[in-house]
Design a protein that fits this description.
The complex is a heterodimer of chains A (about 350) and B (about 90). Chain A is about 0% helix and about 40% strand. Chain A is mainly beta and about 350 residues long. In chain B, strands 2-1-5-3-4 form a five-stranded mixed β-sheet, with helices on one face. The chains are: A mainly beta (about 350), B alpha+beta (about 90). The interface between A and B is medium-sized, with 21 and 19 residues.
């Protein structure tokens, strides 16, 4: 039995069933509110939901109830009194490498840290106070810290991705930060303005747990890999129908594996040619193979947002993604074949395996 | 004490009370006192900088005001979601 946590423009939907088959709706929570992101901490079983209300603002909710019935509001993420900023939305909640440690990434781009399993949150001032922050600019989705990549077993090492302020790396638990910009090419800028720019639009970034110096990134217009902890990046988009896309997921058991969902160009931002396909690499991006069996192959112009593609750690691996048009597709065989798990949901913002 | 009138979903977060009496010399102080009495309301009306959220309307005796408006003990406050912030 698989459980998917699906965040949407109209609440959280928990789907249960078998990957590749239609799933049942088990729970709907937060109707009328946008669930930007939902995930379950595998260490504690605690489920988190980042909820945004158009009128009453954002909050992080959590529950220890497997039935997702009783939710509690976390204290934060919220900026302290001496910081002139307010949280617009929480993009991601990520477990850390110490018991009780979690990270949250928010808009405006900031990292928050919890040491009590997500009940209270504190601003990471090291990243907030980096001198270049006044030069950062938002992407269309805001100034978002949306990707947090801990280093397995080492809480001191951390990488985060920001739209549109690039990759930031820390090796002292977040006290100090440096950039990981080298090799990223912002083709959306004139060539003579690219050198030294901070306007690097990371769409999604993941670290291989079995080879943690390796990260994969879906960038605004290309796909990249780093083999040196995020210091330098190599373009690996050759072989994809388009370098553009939002999410990227990995196979945690295979450091050479990654999956992306290319979208058409920088303007349409829909599946190319009306055909839906996940592209898989098993050689670290040297080649890509389309995995479209069971996915719509005509008249399907879907958009899949940055948090709307999830993967588990099973073997064979299960994968699932959701579209802004409200369909969840899932695969129980590592992407070889796909089925519609659920249809006619509201605009899907995130998909995660519980 | 001023009376704060709440509607759903704020009423639910205040334990089902639609009228809550709290003290405070300004709208901001009244709402903070309301949050202290009903912690589940924290962050819903005021953001972390103490500003009334952009898509929330607060009225004192029928006049739309911001967080720095003065409040008298006999005043009646209404807290309403703005139509501008609704989700389509």
């Amino acid at each position: 039995m698989t459980e998917l946590l699906v965040g949407t423009h109209k609440g959280l939907f928990a789907l249960r069933g078998t990957n590749g088959d239609p799933m049942e709706l088990a729970v709907r929570a937060f109707p009328g509110e946008t669930v930007e992101y939902a995930t379950r901490d595998p260490r504690t079983g605690r489920t988190f939901a980042s909820v945004s209300n158009g009128q009453f603002g954002p909050r992080v909710m959590f529950t220890d109830d497997p039935g997702l019935g009783e939710w509690n509001q976390a204290k934060g993420p919220a900026f302290p009194d001496d910081v002139d900023a307010a949280v617009v939305r929480t993009w991601v909640v990520t477990p850390g490498e110490i018991d009780g440690l979690l990270y949250a990434g928010v808009d405006p781009a900031a990292l928050f840290v919890s040491t009590d399993n997500g009940e209270t949150w504190e601003l990471n001032r090291g990243l907030w106070n980096v001198p270049t922050r006044p030069e950062w600019n938002p992407g269309l989705g805001g100034l978002a810290l949306h990707s947090i990549c801990p280093w397995p077993g080492d809480p001191a090492r951390l990488a985060v991705g920001i739209s549109a302020a690039g990759v930031w790396l820390s090796e002292d638990g977040g006290d100090t930060w440096r950039t990981g910009y080298t090799g990223l090419v912002p083709e959306y800028l004139p060539e003579d303005t690219r050198e030294g720019t901070h306007a690097l639009c990371v769409h999604n970034m993941r670290r291989s747990p079995v080879r943690p110096e390796r990260l994969f990134m879906q960038f605004h217009g290309s796909v990249y890999r780093s083999d040196d902890t995020g210091e330098t990046w190599s373009d690996i988009a050759t072989g994809l129908p388009d370098g553009f896309g939002f999410p990227i997921v990995l196979d945690p058991a295979d450091p050479d594996a990654a999956f992306v969902i290319p979208l058409d160009g920088m303007f349409d931002r829909a599946t190319p040619g009306g055909r839906v396909a996940v592209y898989e690499t098993r050689d670290a991006g040297a080649s890509w193979t389309a995995r479209g069996t069971g996915l719509p192959q005509k008249n399907a112009w879907l958009t899949i947002l940055r948090q709307a593609f999830g993967a588990d750690s099973g073997s064979p691996q299960s994968l699932a993604f959701g579209s802004t048009s409200g369909t969840v597709f899932a695969s129980g065989d590592g992407g070889a074949s796909w089925g519609t798990a659920f249809d006619r949901l509201p605009r899907i913002t995130s998909v995660r395996f519980a | 004490m001023a009376t704060v009138n709440l509607r759903a979903p704020l009423k639910d977060l205040a334990g089902g009370n639609s009228d809550v009496q709290v003290e405070g010399a300004t709208v901001g102080a009244v709402i903070q006192a309301l949050e202290k009495e009903h912690p589940k309301l924290t962050g819903w009306i005021l953001d972390e900088q103490g500003h009334v959220r952009r898509h929330v309307n607060v009225f004192v005796n029928g006049e739309r005001v911001r967080e720095d408006a003065a409040v008298q003990p006999a005043d009646r406050l209404h807290v309403l979601p703005s139509i501008s912030g609704g989700s389509p």
